[in-house]
Amino acid sequence: MDDDGLLYRVYERRLMRELEAYDLPRHLGVIVDGNRRWAKASGKPAAEGHRMGAAKITEFLTWCEELEIPLVTVWMLSTANLRRPADELAQLVEIIAETVEAIAAAGYCVRLAGSVEALPETTRERIRQVQESSPADKQLTVNVAIGYGGREEIVDAVRELVLDLGSEGRSPEEIAAAITMEGIGERLYTRGQPDPDLIIRTSGEQRLSGFLMWQSAHSEFWFCETNWPGFRRVDLLRALRDFCQRERRFGS
């Protein structure tokens, strides 16, 4: 091991020791941004960036499992991504399907957060099979946000709530009066799960772009300059240390 590698390992162990005194997030969200920028900087095609980013997701999940973080939401495909050029989108969708299958094969519980209706039928079927065969009693649950948009999620939740209330024979006025934050929350893609404690975004962008808009009201955020394929375990540990040292102020 060279000197840089040795220093890296020493620093990583120090961070691990610091984290022992704290409670880590119950739910970690991650916006895996920068695959195309990584590819461009490396002189590689965009598809190679997406493949490297996909491989990083599975590696990242092993780190989360080791740290006993029980729930991770990974934003893999936004509704805006669906407007990319057809050839790039086709490659990206295939990589995503392979990644979802790899996550399940690694033994994690997989849940869909989003809509796959705009994806090819064969891809939808592959994702459906993964969900149906994924056990719910695993140490780590992974929400794969595919065809995800935060505004769309809220609209879907409100629409479902209105339909449920309407099916009870309520009048429009009664439906409007019965719409509550609890009712909407129970119909989000992440229903039944805790809201994210920490959301990480890579590539230097400092915005959420609609990721978990409802659920992130009290989340902490951590942004880093590294493009997703270059994200390291030590970057995760630094994010967790920063989170643990903050004084969280819910609602203030």
Written account of the structure:
α4 packs parallel to α5 (121-133). The chain is of the alpha/beta class and 252 residues long. The chain contains 9 helices and 6 strands, in the order αβααβαβαβαααββα. The model has no long low-confidence stretch (mean pLDDT 93). The protein has a domain at 24-149 and 196-243: Decaprenyl diphosphate synthase-like (Undecaprenyl pyrophosphate synthetase, 3-Layer(aba) Sandwich). The longest helix has 21 residues, at 46-66. β3 (109-114), α5 (121-133) and β4 (141-148) form a beta-alpha-beta unit. Substrate binds at residues 34-38, 50, 84, 201, 207-209. Keywords: Magnesium, Metal-binding, Transferase.
Name a few traits of the molecule.
252 residues; alpha/beta; Undecaprenyl pyrophosphate synthetase; six-stranded parallel β-sheet; 9 helices; 6 strands
Residues in helix, %: 40-55%
Let me know the largest β-sheet: 6 strands, parallel
Number of strands: 6
Considering the protein shown, what is the CATH homologous superfamily of the domain at 24-149 and 196-243? Decaprenyl diphosphate synthase-like
- The low-pLDDT segments are none
What is the typical, i.e. mean, pLDDT? 93
CATH topology of the domain at 24-149 and 196-243: Undecaprenyl pyrophosphate synthetase
What is the overall silhouette?
globular
Measured between the Cα atoms of the first and last residue, the distance is: 47 Å
CATH level-two architecture of the domain at 24-149 and 196-243: 3-Layer(aba) Sandwich
Under CATH at level 1, the class of the domain at 24-149 and 196-243 stands as: Alpha Beta
Helix/strand order, N-terminal first = HEHHEHEHEHHHEEH
Alpha carbon gyration radius? 19 Å
Strand order of the largest sheet: 3-4-2-1-5-6
